[in-house]
Amino acid sequence: MIIENIDIDATLREVEKLLSEEEGLSPAMRSRVELLVLAITLLAGRLNRNSRNSSKPPSSDPNRKREGERKAGGQKGHEGVTLEKVENPDKVEVIKADRRKYPLCKYELVGYEARQVFDMKISRVVTEYRAEIVEDVEGNRFVASFPEAVTKAVQYGPDLKAHAVYMSQYQLIPYKRIQEYCEDRATSSISASTDT
Q1: Residue 72 gets which letter from DSSP?
Q2: Which residues 6+ apart lie within 8 Å of 110 measured at CB?
Q3: How far is CA 158 from CA 79, 137, 163, in A?
Q4: Rounded CA gap, 181 and 167, in Å?
Q5: Number of helices (H), then strands (E), in the chain
Q6: How far apart (Å, rounded) are the C-alpha atoms in residues 22 and 33?
């Protein structure tokens, strides 16, 4: 049975009209029929939903027309961006040749083949500022001045605050998820009331 050829709305309107005209129908039967009409209306509404009349994405529309048939990846004429090696990497790991795997002989190191891996580490960095306390011959004590931004015994740094603001204001990530992220990645617990 093909549902598309049936005008469901017109059929339901006809049923409702007949139901209102029917005088000898018991209240129990009337309620059951009204419930069935409501269920059919809701189910029919679901069948007719698409990206134009609901929050469904266009990709879920059946038989949708595609704007163009493009292959995945960079398109013809598009200038790509490729990673390039840097002259001074942050870290160098030397992989020693396992001479046991090669024929028995005396070997001499003649160079390296290099490959670079670009990665990002997000971790907690705690900086403790220690202001010197000095005392003169008369017993007077003097304390060195902390940097202007260091005003509390324990506080968040400017990079952590900037990162949290970036995630909440630019990426629109909810505060709870930012809090979980900071606890997971930086082992720092922050709250929505953190000074920015």
Answers
A1: S
A2: none
A3: 36, 39, 9
A4: 10
A5: 4, 2
A6: 12
Could you read off the pLDDT of 101-141 as tens digits, one per residue? 888 888 888 888 888 888 877 778 889 999 999 988 988 89
| C-beta neighbour count of 135 within 10 angstroms | 9
What are residue 134's phi and psi, to 5 degrees? -115, 155
Instruction: Cite the DSSP H helix spans in the chain.
Output: 8-21, 27-47, 158-165, 175-185
Q: Which residue has the tokens 């059919």?
A: 40
Buried b (16+ CB within 10 A) or exposed e, 105-134: eeeeeeeeeeeeeeeeeeeeeeeeeeeeee
Per residue in 46-66, pLDDT (tens digit) is: 777 777 777 777 777 777 666
Verdict on whether the full-model pTM lies above 0.70: no
Rounded Cα distance between 54 and 103, Å, is 70
Structure tokens at 127: 């900086």
DSSP 143: E
Question: How many other C-beta atoms lie within 10 A of the C-beta of residue 64?
Answer: 11
